[in-house]
Each structure stands twice: as C-alpha cells, then as structure tokens.
Amino acid sequence: MPRRSILSAAERESLLALPDSKDDLIRHYTFNDTDLSIIRQRRGPANRLGFAVQLCYLRFPGVILGVDELPFPPLLKLVADQLKVGVESWNEYGQREQTRREHLSELQTVFGFRPFTMSHYRQAVQMLTELAMQTDKGIVLASALIGHLRRQSVILPALNAVERASAEAITRANRRIYDALAEPLADAHRRRLDDLLKRRDNGKTTWLAWLRQSPAKPNSRHMLEHIERLKAWQALDLPTGIERLVHQNRLLKIAREGGQMTPADLAKFEPQRRYATLVALATEGMATVTDEIIDLHDRILGKLFNAAKNKHQQQFQASGKAINAKVRLYGRIGQALIDAKQSGRDAFAAIEAVMSWDSFAESVTEAQKLAQPDDFDFLHRIGESYATLRRYAPEFLAVLKLRAAPAAKNVLDAIEVLRGMNTDNARKLPADAPTGFIKPRWQKLVMTDAGIDRRYYELCALSELKNSLRSGDIWVQGSRQFKDFEDYLVPPEKFTSLKQSSELPLAVATDCEQYLHERLTLLEAQLATVNRMAAANDLPDAIITESGLKITPLDAAVPDTAQALIDQTAMVLPHVKITELLLEVDEWTGFTRHFTHLKSGDLAKDKNLLLTTILADAINLGLTKMAESCPGTTYAKLAWLQAWHTRDETYSTALAELVNAQFRHPFAGHWGDGTTSSSDGQNFRTASKAKSTGHINPKYGSSPGRTFYTHISDQYAPFHTKVVNVGLRDSTYVLDGLLYHESDLRIEEHYTDTAGFTDHVFALMHLLGFRFAPRIRDLGDTKLYIPKGDAAYDALKPMIGGTLNIKHVRAHWDEILRLATSIKQGTVTASLMLRKLGSYPRQNGLAVALRELGRIERTLFILDWLQSVELRRRVHAGLNKGEARN
C-alpha cells in the first residue's frame, strides 16, 4: 500500500519557493564583507559568480543547485550586480563538473553547511513529534522542519524525506495522544464509555447519538431533556483535568473525526484509539451541552420578556376606546370645574351637572383599573410566566457548577438560597436572603409590604444570572462560551514578559503616559482648529449652530450617464452556467484543493461532486433537492462529501485562495489597492420560524431568517463572512473579519454604517492598528468629549457631551493592553470579548476605561469628518461598494 501523502503539490512547491519580491531577495541574498572576501578568492568572473550563486541556494532555500538547473533570473542579477560581473558569465561556469564539486565541498567547509544524515532524520522526527502533539497539519510540520534545518545550516534533503519524517511524527504523536487520554481511565470509565455505543432503551438511537442532539425549541420540555443529556455526560465521571492532558487543537480534531463516524465504526477502533476518541467526544460534548443549556435559558427568558411586553401593549391598545372615553369624560368634568370656579358656583354641583355622583365615583374606579404604572413598565406581567420557568429552574440551577467574581457574589448567593429551597422543598424565603442584587426596576415587585415575594425574587435572580453569565461576572465550570473572564486572556506572566521585552503586538505606544500625551495633545489641537473654523463658518459643507450640526449631503459621485455604459458592458458579458464557471475558476486558482478530507487530508476524488456539494450550500438548495436535480448523483454521496470535506476552515482557506487570486490580478487595481474595506449585515429569509427558536431579531422581529455579516475589500472581494447571533449589534463582529481572514489583504482603513460602531470598537481598532471610519447617522447627536472641563470651545458647545475620565484609563491601562494583546494573538475572539464587555455593569473598570479610550478616538474621528469632505466621500464610496456587492 503506498504511503499516504501529507502535502499537496502546491504545498510541496511552496516549501522550496524562492523569494519573488525585491525586498526579500535583498534580505536573503545580500553579501557581507566576509562573504565577498571569500567569493573574490575564486579565479575569473564565472567561478566567482557560480560560487556565489551556490552559496545563495545553500543559504535559502537550503538546497544544492542541480547541474542542469538554471538560477532564478532575479537572484542571478542581484548576485552579479554585487560582484560587478555580467550575468552571461554563468554560461561559462561549471564546464568542468569537478569545479562544481570542489566549490560545493569548499562551501560546506568554509560556511559550515552539513549534509542531512540519518542522525538528523531521527532528531527531526523527535522534534516534530512534539509539534505534532499540537497540530497534525503536514505543511506546518514540514515548514517547521525546513526552518530548523536552515538555522542549523543542514542542507535540505529531498522533500520525500521531509514528508516522511513529518508523517512519522504525526503517527507517533497520535499514539502518544491516544495513550495520554486512555491510560488515566479506570475499568469503570471504560465500561461507561463503551456503553455510549450501545442503543438506548427505546432501541432507536445509541446513547452517543442522543447525547449529541441539539435542542429544537426554547421551552421547558426541551430544556429538561437537555439537562438530562448534561447529567448523562457528567455521569461518566471522567478523571478531573483529562482534557488538559493534550493540546486543545488535537482534542477538538479527534472529537470532530469521531463525530463524523458511526458507532459501529468507532467500535472497530483498537481500544486505545477508541477510548481516546470517546473521551474527546465526551469533553467536547459536555462543553457544548453546557453552553446550549445556558443559551436555552437566555432564549426562554427573552421569549417570556417579549411576550410580557407584547401583552402589555396589546392590553393598552385594547383599552384604547375605554381610555379615550374616560379622557373625554374628565375633559368635560374639568371644564365644568373651571367654569364653576370662574362663576363662583359650587364645584360638586358642577360635577353632578355632568353626571351623577355615584356614576362619577364608579368612573374613578374604572379609571384606576385602566391606569398603568407610572413608568409604564411591563415587568409585573413576567410573573404570569413563572410556572414556565419553575418547570426547569430547579434542575437548571442544580446541574450547573457556577462560580462568581466579587461583582456578582450577591447573585450567586441568591442562587445558593434557591438551590437550598429546592432541595428542602421550602416555600418561604429565609429572612436573611440576599437582596443586594435586586435592581430598582424589580424592587417594588420583590420587596412587598408582606415581605419578599418568592415568585418575583426567583424571576429576578434568574434574570440577573443571565446578565452575569453574559458579562462573565459568573462563569460555569466545563463551559466553552461562559468561562472565567481571566481564562480568555493571555496569562499575566506571559503578558508581563511581552511588555517588558517590548514585544506586545499592538500598533500604539505601550507606555500609558506617552500614549495619553500624544493622543490628548492631538485632540486639543484638533478641537481648537475645528472650534476656530466653526466660529468663522469655515467648515466645508457643514455648520454648527445653537440647534446643532448640519452637514450638506454629498453630491452623487457617479454620473447618471454611467448607467448606460454599465448596461452596455453587462450585455457584452457571456452567459455562463454556474457549474461551468466554478470549474473554470478552479482551473485558474485551484481553490478546491483546500477541501481536504477531515481525517486523511486527501483531496476529493470527484471534483464535480465536490463542487455540486459546495453549490448546494451556496444557493441554500439543500442536498436532497440538489441530488434530485443532478442525474447520477445521490444524496448519500453528497452527504458523505459534505461531512468529510466541507468545513468552516476549508471554506475559509478556499475563500482566501479566491480573494488572493483577485488581489493579484492587475485589473483589480482599477477598483482599489486592497487596503480599505467595509462591512455590513445582510438578512436572508429561511424556511424556519424564528419565533419557535427564541431567536428574535430587533430589526426583523420573528420573521424567519439568518443574518450574514460580510467584510468586503475595496476590490469588491468578500474576504470574510460570518453567520451572526440575532439581537447583537453589528459592531460586535467588525474586528473578527479584519483579524481572522486568511487572505493576503492588508487592510488599513475600515468603513461601517451606524450599527457598526461603539466606543469599545473605536478603542480596539486604534490599538490594533486599523483606521476606523464609520458613517454615523444623526452625527449631530453623537457627542464630543474634551480632555479638560474648563477648556472653552464655544462654537462646539452644542456637540460637547462631557469631559474624558483619563484617571480611569490610567488605572486600567495594563488591563486594556492585555485585552488587546489577547485579541490580536487569537487567544480569544474579538466578538466574544466585545459581547462580554457590552454586557458588563456600567461600573466595571475595564469596560469604562476602554469606553473612555474609544471616546478619544471617536472625538478625533468626528473632528476629522467635520474638516474633510474627502473623508466623507471616501467612506461613502467604500460603503457603496459593499451595498453594490450585496
């Protein structure tokens, strides 16, 4: 059986590729004085040039230039220019084969190059095995080995040897990982894991298949069923910390491989691999179910709050006729009283002239019933849904292992009280039940004249638990999305080391005083400039008056006559079947090579079938309908390809390949240089009902659909797309696309609409090296913040919202840098951190400090906007590109 290849043809080519940019050529192939002294000892221009070229190839890429190989022309010219000889001298080099051999031998002796031996091979396998404990990607291992050999001045062997060493390291690492996960297991653990592959009592599905099911709807029945799943995972009682014995990447990979296999396939594995795979499935499954239970609770509460709000509004609307009648009645009574006072008549007689006293008293009682609370709050109606929450709340609180930061200790104390009451079947709250977590909005419902209302106390505690889980003030053991906030960040000791060695991956000065001095000096200068221009009415196409800011709308940048040319161009373009287009684009770019098999890394054998599967995803047709539409294709074939070859990471790398191909094409330069981009969300309708899933979008309501948040370059390339959570602001996901795309684009400036900005985003954008330029709707309502409260900017007064809290920034400077470093290094995603920061209580130090930093940057941006029509046009044009693509 032939050995499995772990490198694609393109990857093999890239490993030994010569630099093609001028800067890289100079960096790799510039000689120092010692080099030149040794080279000039050769006799004649040809020998000097040949000796020098061989030296270059031995240094990078680290190989011996073959006898029949011609040097890379740019390299040859660079070397010839340094030696002041003509490139044609190469043709005279090595006419005697012995000359080349002698030069090669001398190069090895003088510069210390060594041939690759069996000893090096064994060392390579040992070194790569440690790396393979973290990743089994062949290209990563091969690149690491080649880099190591170059640093050791070892001449690279044939790529087959590199690939063989990498494959052997992966095999060894796999065995070590299987042993690491299986050896801590006792016999009882192994029996329980084997039982997962058996059928449940109903005989329809295996325990493993049942445990991996996701909840269908946010209701108490599905919540209780999912809690039973978590209990079943917990009942495995795996050794504590077993998931930390191997690298997270490998654990997740093993779990994903196991998830694609049938229980029958898993049962055929040799014991160590079977138990290791089941352990990986169990640890990942437990984290997934834990997160889904918390998400279910969040959605159920959201659904109940929306129902209460809607019922409140409906009742008010239903009472509209009666309320109007009462208003008209009391208008007549009021007028009668006014007339009575003016004429000196008796007030009571005036009322009875309109209606009898008994009728008046009865109407007052009716009005009191129609009246809503002073704050017109619907919260009291939540109590009507208490029974829904009560069906699952005891089990929900019992199954989660909660921990809390000091800010949420009162909430956790309340949860502990409720847990105790559930255990004891107690109805009445203890006299010393914690109440510090109760917000003013809940106060009058929970704290009554008769004491603490148990029903509203529990509802309030469950609601505050949801908020604290979102912010990270309460975290859950075993969760992935609701961990301790500290666990998401770079470890403190690593951050301190990076800061002390000036290696923080940030685009700003990391010294707090230097940073603040630079930004505040600039801010004061800009405020003074814009204040002077506003006072003199010199702002371009903008005016600030006591009533606020007014900006003249931009003229159309594209003339109306351009549409005729667009239509003519569209008519010239050929009509091509999308299937033919996919095949043709793949011939240009080879993007399908990225859709590798999850386990083996092999390419799909049937490219047409793979493209059919991709197309089914792209047009949302589904595999069943696609199979029916394509003769000779079956659902089973498409489903197998989808399961093993199409994943988030394969789509990401394939998209990057397409974006890079367009980026490198000369024609794309007519649209832009690839350094600016825009992003926006787009809602697509689907066949399911959001109402039944608890996903309510603030903009689209319960209409069925999904929102895709897409980043588009100035060359119209959609370089990052993400399906986003409903109910969250677009700004949550802006940084994800800029940081985590895999293309060669180097974005410097980014545009969004109003939904894409917050002060937190402004701050992080600047820290991470991006110019942020949102188009802010109602800009006049967006306030400026000044460094000093006593500074006079009279012309800007209508727009000034307050003074910056610089003390807060100083106090939390290291926390800000650590957060930004963690996001930049990929320790945690920007969207997760922004979501948690946005959920923090207002007094949280880090959230407030980051907001103040964002206010500095937002104020600077608005001041630029007021001064520059060109900036307004640039942002407008950038956003139009995204809208045109959509």
Automatic annotation (TrEMBL):
Tn3 transposase DDE domain ranges (all copies): 580-886
Annotated GO biological process: DNA transposition
InterPro entries assigned: DUF4158 (IPR025296), Tn3-like_transpos (IPR047653), Tn3_Tnp_DDE_dom (IPR002513)
GO molecular function, one term: DNA binding
Keyword DNA-binding attached: yes
Residues covered by the DUF4158 domain: 6-169
Keyword field: DNA recombination, DNA-binding, Transposition
Family classification: Belongs to the transposase 7 family.
NCBIfam families for the chain: transpos_Tn3
Protein name: Tn3-like element TnAs3 family transposase
